[in-house]
UniProtKB/TrEMBL annotation:
PANTHER family per record: OS07G0440000 PROTEIN, OS08G0126400 PROTEIN
Annotated ranges, domain KIB1-4 beta-propeller: 78-366
Protein name: DUF295 domain-containing protein
Short name of one Pfam family: F-box
Domain of life of the source: Eukaryota
Annotated source species: Zingiber officinale
All residue ranges annotated as the F-box domain in the record: 8-42
Amino acid sequence: MEDDAHDWSLLPLDLLRKLGEKLHFPHRVVFRTVCKSWCSALPSIVFPYPWLLLPAEQIDDSCTFLSLSSDNEHRSSFKFSPVPPLYGMCYAGSNGSWVAIVDLAFNTSLLNPLTAAQIHLPSFLPLPRVEPLPNCGGYLCHNTDHSNSYFFEFETCRDYFIKKVVFSSNPTPQNHTAMVIRHEYPTAYTKAGMSKWTSLDFPVLDIIYHDGLFYILRCVSEVVAFDLSGDNPVKRVIIDLFNSDIELSDSFLSRSYVHQDKYLAFSSTGELFLIMRCNIYTDDSTKFETEGFMILKYNCESSSCWDEVRCLENQSLFIGMNNAYLLSIEGFSGLRANCIYFTDTFEGINCNIVTGRANPDIGLFDLEQEKIELCCMPYDKLLPPPIWFLPSIESYE
């Protein structure tokens, strides 16, 4: 009843402070977002480093976070419940404090896992050659000429076709733009006010959003910038395929890889990087894992356009399903300099689960020592793969 309502903002500050100090870290973050008086009751929250958002283990789980530290064995995980249930969701992308999630029906949205702010995007369905069979628990997928058909369960089909969702910084319901990389389908985009995804007919290896533009890695080393702010996409070639070349280092050539993932990343000063990730099978051919990395920086004055980078100095690089980024360790205690922090891919994690290998391919690569250290996870099987994000309590009005 309305007469029974209480104004919780009028609680004494010392009482609020005592209550807030008993909360775990993520709950303290949300505590400060309730109102001005609750915010003033606790000191400002300092986010020490990026977090990993882990998949929900059970249907009643909501959010599981893993915070990094310099001590691999003492990294802590904690659960958090104010957000919509995430069990069965695919983490398809992240940018800053926002994460793109996709459910089994290909419904897509952007979510801030700490504030529960959510922006709904158009569904990826219908997809040409994909026929939903809800009574059978999956989709019937036809090849290009419809000569053959294959049945995939809902989760398998979604995780196969949706490779990565990249979106603009600080999105709001009235102002957001997103692009998606899809297996066997052209990349597509949508933005506020659109009711569907619009295809762009060209191959894509990676996409990154930076300073109002989407940068697309095409083929081996060609980079194209897209401005989607107007009525029609505006394309500008940054690096032409025919005028660029990648000279692989001897250490990278010596690796017997079976697959390469490529990522674009920008530094805080606007420098463009290309990261090549070498994936191999172990000696017994049963485990798919990362063996090493090679980093290249765009140099417009170089004959090849790309120069190898062997040292990131006081920076760390974060790659995976996220909008890749470089961070200075000076602003994030616990990070190690000159390292690449990486998470598993759908291809790698699916391969390992099929072959009965549970331990995930998640860790850091020390550029100086060319050595990989795997991260200790709170549990073994991680599907979908976890995703990096930068915790923040900012939300739209």
